Automatic annotation (TrEMBL):
Lineage: Eukaryota, Viridiplantae, Streptophyta, Embryophyta, Tracheophyta
Spans traversing the lipid bilayer: 23-47, 54-74
Keywords of this entry: Membrane, Transmembrane, Transmembrane helix
Organism name: Lactuca sativa
Protein name: Oleosin
Length: 108
């Protein structure tokens, strides 16, 4: 009978811990979700004023920035540096020259 009572005691302890895990794990999960939500809200509240300032400045400056970067790229390419995309441009130029070699005009 003692062995049977100890088995019942073990199963009660096991049931207690299973119930405890069923309560504690969702609480920990909910705590993590709430803390991530708070962090996300804080980042959102910090970045919104920043975007409210930067987006109009970007819209105002894009007509200046785009041509300036384009001119800078052309100057880099013409001076012999190899900016991004220069290799692809060279390949296209070589294909055009190769296609145009056999092409002649009949002017007369």
């Amino acid at each position: 009978m003692a062995a049977n009572g100890s088995d019942q005691h073990v199963s009660l302890d096991q049931q207690f811990y299973e119930d405890l895990v069923k309560i504690v794990v969702p609480m920990i999960f909910a705590g993590h979700i709430i803390s991530l939500s708070i962090v996300g809200l804080a980042i959102f509240l910090i970045l919104i004023p920043l975007f409210m300032i930067l987006i109009p400045l970007f819209i105002i400056m894009i007509p200046v920035l785009f041509p300036a970067s384009f001119i800078f790229w052309i100057c880099s390419y013409l001076t012999g540096e190899h900016p991004i995309g220069a290799d692809q441009l060279e390949e296209v130029r070589k294909k055009i020259v190769k296609a145009a070699v056999g092409f002649t005009y009949n002017w007369i």
